[in-house]
Amino acid sequence: MAREYKFKGYTFYSEEEYNEAKKENETIEYIKSRTDLSHTETVIGLYNKLIDRNVISTVIGLDFLKRLRGLALKDEMTSESKLRDLPEISVSKKKKDKERAKLTKVQRLQRENLGLKIVVIGLVAIIIGMFVIVLTGKSSPLKSVYEEQIINKYAGWQQELTQKQEWINEQLYFLEQNGVTYGE
Fold first, then answer.
1. What are the C-alpha distances in Å from 75 to residues 34, 68, 72, 78?
2. DSSP 8-state symbol, 81
3. Can you tell me the distance from the alpha carbon of 93 to that of 16, in angstroms, rounded to the nearest whole number?
4. How many CA atoms lie within 13 A of 46 on its CB side?
5. Dihedrals φ, ψ of 106, to 5°?
6. Mean pLDDT in runs of 10 for the chain (184 residues)?
7. Between helices 15-34 and 59-74, what is the axis angle to 10°?
8. Which one, of 43, 82, 93, 34, lies nearest residue 66 by Cα?
């Protein structure tokens, strides 16, 4: 399960988001200590500058911008048109973790093992393809082994036949020498 980090009433689901929020909070505290927020024009300038420079990236900063916006709008002389729109802050990691938490353990295992199954099926297909190539290819190593065995077998038969032919020729010669005729 994902670890949760709490800061200023907000929950962060990664250490990176948590550290970013802490850093942004330090920046906000520095700005507050150096800025007189009692003057509406200063508040409006600070608010718009923070949005224009895209300084705010966490809910901590968004909360600060909302407070600045509220301070600026307290002055009845300030209109909405002087203020930029609030930026959108993404909290997608939080949503993903919530979705993961909803899955049962079996569903999580099935989802995680799907990639492994695809890899195994791919490897099996490659191995089968390799066997097909080896067995049907023109220069197959197995084919040359079988050819060699067949050639050796026929060579052995040829040697036997040659020996038998020589024996028969010797017998015929012997019979001719002794005056025996055959096949007439």
1. 22, 12, 6, 6
2. G
3. 11
4. 25
5. -65, -45
6. 80 87 92 88 89 87 90 82 81 55 69 83 91 73 76 86 91 85 62
7. 30
8. 43
Residues 111-152: tens digit of each pLDDT: 778 888 888 899 999 999 888 877 776 666 666 777 888 888
How many CB atoms lie under 10 A from the CB of residue 8?
10
Give the three-state DSSP class for 2: coil
Listed by start position, the domains of the chain span 5-93, 103-136, 142-184
pTM of the model: 0.49
In 3D, which of 28, 10, 177 has the Cα closest to residue 94? 10
Residue 95: how many other CB atoms lie within 10 Å: 11
HSE of 64, CA atoms in CB hemisphere, 13 A: 25
CA distance 167 to 169: 5
Q: Are 22 and 7 in contact (CB under 8 A)?
A: yes
Place of tokens 């399960």: 1
Tell me the C-alpha distance between 121 and 69, whole Å: 58
Q: Are strands 5-7 and 10-12 parallel, antiparallel or unpaired?
A: antiparallel
Expressed in percent and rounded to 5, the helix, strand and coil fractions of the chain are 70, 5, 25
